[in-house]
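Tokens for ribose-phosphate diphosphokinase. Go.
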Amino acid sequence: MSYKTTEAKFFACTQSTYLAEQIAKAYGAELGNVITSTYSDGEFQPSYEESIRGSRVFIIGSTHPGPENLMEMLLMIDAAKRASARHVTAVIPYFGWARQDRKDKPRVPIAAKLVAKMLEAAGATRIITMDLHADQIQGFFEKPVDHLFASTIFLPYLQSLNLDNLTIASPDMGGSKRAYAYSKALKSDVVICYKQREKANIISHMELIGDVTGKNVVLVDDMVDTAGTLTAAADLMMERGALSVRAICTHPILSGDAYEKLEKSKLEELIVTNSIPLRKESKKLRVLSCANLFADVMHNVHHNKSISNTFVM
């Protein structure tokens, strides 16, 4: 589908250039000209090389760590505001720092709210993002937030597999709501993994709630970081009699030795979006593009149309 507009302008943060090009192409537009100058100490300065006065500016970039990705988004928003853009929409496929959405122990920050306030202070007038780690993060903003669901992308793919005895699984208790939503759409059973952690990214114990004997299981999560939880859950389910185990995770962080864990695991495939650039390829990774989803929503936002038809869950 192709759209034409004379007002909306599209710009990419450095780490999200490839996805931004896909989104702009799906929209029927081209990326605007922005250059980044870098000082010898690592400080950088983005510069718009065309007029954006009076335009709706879409700035596309995920804010995954390192911190320069968030900083680049903030600087580009500030530059657009100071260049008299009419609307500045931050398109953030992966909203980084979202795991710190509450105080889970004394004397720690709520980083997700801090990031929300920084984006607004920089001058963002709207946020478009996908599969936040916690739905309540929308409430950290005083500006409109369009929270998209990658189920729009994943469900058609899962249906195309025509899996018998399909069962949806959540790798932890926190993801049970997401798993139940998928199971409702696919009319399947649900199982839940209960895990205990020693500390971040280290699991001390995992147990399965439900029966997976003779089932084709699909694990559902919003992100995959070290892949420890997913691979442990897949191995446990195969031990309990599952026929196959797949996983769908919106955001492929895949840090540390995640690729090695993935290759050694009993996961048949890990299905992700291109919200974050992959560090490398893997025969077990299948990437589905979210470009059309974002292009459709951005078109409707720009033309003041409803976006409710893009929500599956």
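The first strand starts at residue 9 and ends at 12.
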